Amino acid sequence: MSEKVDVIKLHKDAQALMESGKCAEARDLFARVADLYYKGQNYFGSAEMNYKAGECSSNLKEYEKAVEFYTKSSDISFAKGFERYGITALEGARDAHKALGNTKAVEEINGKIAEIKKKNEQPEEESSFSVFS
Q1: Phi then psi for 126, rounded to 5 degrees?
Q2: The domain containing residue 69 runs over which residues?
Q3: Model confidence over 50-62: pLDDT tens digits?
Q4: What is the Rg, in whole angstroms, of the alpha carbon atoms belonging to the chain?
Q5: Dist CA 118 CA 98 (whole Å)
Q6: Residue 76 CB-density burial (10 A; 0-12 exposed, 13-18 middle, 19+ buried)
Q7: Is 133 inside a domain boundary?
């Protein structure tokens, strides 16, 4: 028989591990929860858990893993329309690349972030709507 997994409890456990400084264990649990959330179609939860796993990896100075988790978080975020969260995850990946000395990757991510922000800016045109017309 299959045992029912309490994803919320695992999420809280991972957060508690992170807060107590046990980043390696927290990262592994965040990654597991991210997969479970994704399978359960909780895409924002999955993006958030991958981001948290990226934070743990950065805290451990495991920047290659951090890039992987942040990238996964941004990919899910952009695919599901969570643009701001996707940008935050890209910034995390950029910072991890910076720590690794990958200047080309840093420049590419900065360009991507600028492009997304520009695309999301509202044109500052005068509205044709008026309550007085």
Answers
A1: -70, 135
A2: 7-118
A3: 999 999 999 999 9
A4: 18
A5: 23
A6: buried
A7: no
